[in-house]
Amino acid sequence: MTHKHAGASLSGKWMSFAATTAITFMLGTAAASAATVVKWMHVELDPKAVAVWEEIAKDFEAKHPDVDVQLQFLENEAFKAKLPTLLQSNDVPDFFYSWGGGVLEEQSKTGALKDLTELFDADGGKIRNAYNPASIEGLSFDGKVWAVPYRVSLVSFFYNKELFAKAGVKAEDIKTWDDLGTAVKTIKAAGIVPIAGGGGEKWPIHFYWSYLVMRNGGQAVFDAARKGEGEGFMAPAMIKAGEQLAEFGKLEPFQPGYLGSTWPQALGVFGDGKAAMILGFDNTEANQRKNAGDGKGLAPENLGRFAFPAVEGGAGKATDTLGGLNGWAVTKNASKEAIEFATFLTNAENEKKMAKAGMILPVAVGASEAVTNPLMAGSAKQLSESTWHQNFFDQTLGAAVGRVVNDVSVEIVSGQMTSEEGAQQIQDAFELR
Asked: Does residue 339 fall inside a structural domain?
């Protein structure tokens, strides 16, 4: 069957949601309509990633000639805005890209998703055992599995080796939060912007507050706040995290105008060599290249990475990590063919293909050995040594509280709000959720 990367070729509501943001193209020759159409919605359109996905879909269609897999793309922010309505439409996707944590939990409570627990536990847990346990746990609520694990991600610092050398800064010397502040001052003194920041979308700045909360309080403090226990988000470690972020903001570490910069624009600043560092995802190498002015960005050999630094005296460990856990959420009326494809897409063989292509840090058991990109391998190694991997705060806490966390992080670092005011706003939002 012909397999499409669908957009404007789709009809009805499916088409209307894609019309302005979808990228449409068809691979292969025209063929008769398939008996079963599998609609798959995602948020990334790196050409390399799409090529691998197309290959995997073709492999599946070759084994299932009565199935037509259609890929639908929506840009990240449009996806988040339109998905709730789309899930209630007549042309809902069979499965879609999802973040672990509160957002997925909220979606599971709407009745829009299929409970996958029985499927995962069938045949002695054959499917469950095909994925790393932590990935299943992060996509489960009340003992029920709500998405097929796809990838794990890690937030860490990436740096421009040439600019570090020019400023006389060594990445290996940045072990503590104070060390990072010193590096920022040294880099600024050399006439270089220290960090590319995406304050316009706000969530890229929440990485700083989140990591500082983790470093100061450790897992116990965050888990207590998330459960509504103790002092919640007014805990001393939370307040201290905000105070440290406020002091960091006074150093003016980001590029001029960062409060209006989107994440792609921040990646472009870094990729164009106009900032020495960026706090980003494990796929930063590919994304800075894609968003650079020349489309090439920094050469791989000019890129390095290091872990978010420790906080001296904090209860958190330097080996605690922040990142994401992504999966494919299956909608309630999805066909058995759609579910079969979702698990085929994420089996060890196909996750190895994606890992080898530098697309993901895989979650399928036995697939991590295929990570060959040096920077990605460094992230994989750090994750393998993680003592606590926390999903993004804005995802874990749910959309309503997550938005406040993002807003507050930006307002604290930019000096518009005190740490205590920010913590109180988060606590208020948590109690009202």
From this structure: yes
- 137 and 197 assigned to the same domain: no
Render pLDDT for 198-229 as a digit per residue (tens, 0 to 9): 999 999 999 999 999 999 999 999 999 999 99
Q: What is the pLDDT of residues 257-299, one digit of tens each?
A: 999 999 999 999 999 999 999 999 998 998 999 999 999 999 9
Enter the tokens of residue 227: 């459960």
Question: Facing residues of 391 across strands?
Answer: 323
DSSP codes, 353-395: HHHHTTS-EE-BTT-GGG--SHHHHHHHHHHHT-SEEEE-HHH
pLDDT the model gives residue 84: 84
Residue 3 binned pLDDT confidence (cut-offs 50, 70, 90): low
Tokens of 259: 């409060």
Cβ within 8 Å of residue 332, ≥6 positions away: 111, 112, 113, 114
DSSP per residue, 41-84: EES---HHHHHHHHHHHHHHHHH-TTEEEEEEE--HHHHHHHHH
Domain containing residue 185: CATH number: 3.40.190.10
Q: CA dist 195 to 180, 188, 262, 280, 362, Å?
A: 11, 10, 14, 11, 28
Task: Please answer whether residues 254 and 193 qualify as being in contact, where contact means their C-beta atoms are separated by less than 8 angstroms.
Answer: yes
- The secondary structure of residue 176, as a DSSP letter, is B
| 45 and 171 within one domain | no
Distance CA 138, CA 149 (A): 9
The answer to whether residue 390 sits within a structural domain is: no
